[in-house]
Amino acid sequence: MNSRSLPNVLLRAALTLAPAFLIVASAATPSDKAAATKGMVKRSDLEIVDCLLPGQVRQLGNSTYLTQRRPIRTTTAECSIRGGEYVAYDRADLKSALRIWMDTAQTGDPEAMTNVGEIYERGMGVEPNYAEAATWYQKAADKGYSRAIFNLGTLYEQGLGVPQDQLKALNLYRQASGLSEDSLIYTSAAQREQDELRKELETAIGERDTQLSLLQKQLQDLQKELAKRPVAQQTSDSKEVEALKKWIAQLEAEKQKSAERLAGIPTTRSPQTRAQLTQLPAVADERTLAGMKFGRYYAIVIGNQNYQAIESLQTPKHDVQRAARVLADKYGFNVQILEDADDIQMLKALNDLNAVLKPEDNLLIYYAGHGERLASGKSQTGYWLPVNADAPPKDTFWVPNEQITGHLSRLPAKRVLVVADSCYAGLLSTDPSYLFMNDKVSYSKDYVAYKLPKRSRLLLTSGGDAPVLDEGGGQNSVFARAFIDELEANTGILSSPELFNRLSKRVQVAAQSNKFVQKPEFKSIKGAGHEVGDFFFVPRSKG
């Protein structure tokens, strides 16, 4: 049984560029590769960097003046063409990245302030400074910038640079998404978090009561014993008395703090008390539903199976071919398939989408191939491995997750879902799990209407930061079979949280039958411009 940690790892991606049919790009021939390396497009041209553009000469009446230099995040090629200044991706550090954005951030620009926060959070060659990241996120959040509000929420959820506070995190996510406090989506998630916190605090208070009761009895017994002894013999035992008193005082303070937090938990109205919302019909119109426009659908499907320097895989090509058919035939995706793609082909496919996608479009990236991670100090970097990848630790041609995230942040498409069937795929997103996901809330027309205008950058992976199965699903991997089977069986509008809930248990059970532990994950991709939106699969109409 093969797994997808090197030398047996599997990663997948899907992209669409032509209506009603599939475009297949096979591995390049040696002469093609030479042309790609020596010709117009080089790997370095496609890497995302922080670029400082020169000022522009402008005329105002009879006066000529130079505008302030402007920072953007773009490819090295575009930065060079526009006369910008940048530091090569693999040599950028905290100081050089901050130099690009800090001046603009200090003028109060919320996007620049958020980028500064993300630079501090990533660390960029040094240990992350979460407290400084939180400070900059808060400044941008005070201006109502949703990406900063969301990022600040992730720090509170994990307790990085700020006190850990799940309810505060949830409320920040609510604000970032524009949800009202009485919305069904928020009240359901808040109720769940409040119930868990209330239970946790009640348990803590009960434990403190038990400890205090025992310690107070121990103190009383010791004090009675001391009272019977001569004063000269009480010195050493009196130190024990003082230690007990301090311990009791500390426990009482902790109990009081927990009691105050318990009293401060707000009461959220249960969603069951609200009126039922209108449910979606079983089958929707191809690209519109009740006046809601879903936009065009594209997919890139990358199947890397036959590797040049590391062990090849068994199922990626079967998986992406089957996935591409379902996406094109049933859901109307415009699909481009990349088989056995090298690093330049993978990055170029992502970069070329900027000329194709429009603001209301949807993009699915389904990646199947080797994945790996490398440690750098205390941090980990995840990679997708093209077919020309060398065995670790030589990472010359590996595609870092950070570069993928950089391309996703630039794409104009409103909704992007990355589906990665790969070992260590979870490293693409360091963000916590999707808090608003709840299988007890019906995904109604109101939910779709609310989520549809929101920008989304979401990640559905076959597992966390551990090996995943390359086989076990017939000609498909365990994850790919569950993913594609659910899409084939679906008959209505399908949100990405619903899809995750449906396939997650299937994958775990199938993996267990192969004596393997594999648990899919669903997250937002931090640093790619996620705004608490969603991704919807809309079947073609039957007519």
Number of helices: 15
What Rg, in angstroms, do the CA atoms define? 27 Å
Question: In one word, what is the shape?
Answer: globular
Helix content: 40-55%
N- to C-terminal separation? 44 Å
Mean pLDDT: 78
Strand content bin: 15-25%
Task: Please tally the β strands and state the result.
Answer: 20
Question: What class do helices, strands and sheet pairing give?
Answer: alpha/beta
Query: Sheet bearing the most strands, described?
Result: 4 strands, mixed
**Unreliable stretches, pLDDT < 50, 5 or more residues?**
6-23, 26-39, 269-286
> How are the strands ordered across the major sheet?
10-14-15-19
Task: Provide a descriptive summary of the structure in words.
The protein has 543 residues and is an alpha/beta fold. The protein contains 15 helices and 20 strands. It has helices at 30-38, 76-81, 94-106, 110-122, 130-141, 146-158, 166-177, 184-227, 235-264, 316-331, 343-352, 401-410, 445-451, 478-489, 496-513, and strands at residues 22-25, 48-53, 57-60, 63-66, 70-75, 288-289, 292-293, 297-303, 334-339, 362-368, 371-376, 379-384, 399-400, 415-421, 456-461, 472-473, 476-477, 494-495, 521-524, 536-537. The strands form 8 sheets. It has a 4-stranded mixed sheet. Strands 1-9-8 form a 3-stranded parallel sheet, with helices on both faces. A 3-stranded antiparallel sheet has the order 11-12-13. A hairpin with a 2-residue loop joins strand 3 (57-60) and strand 4 (63-66).
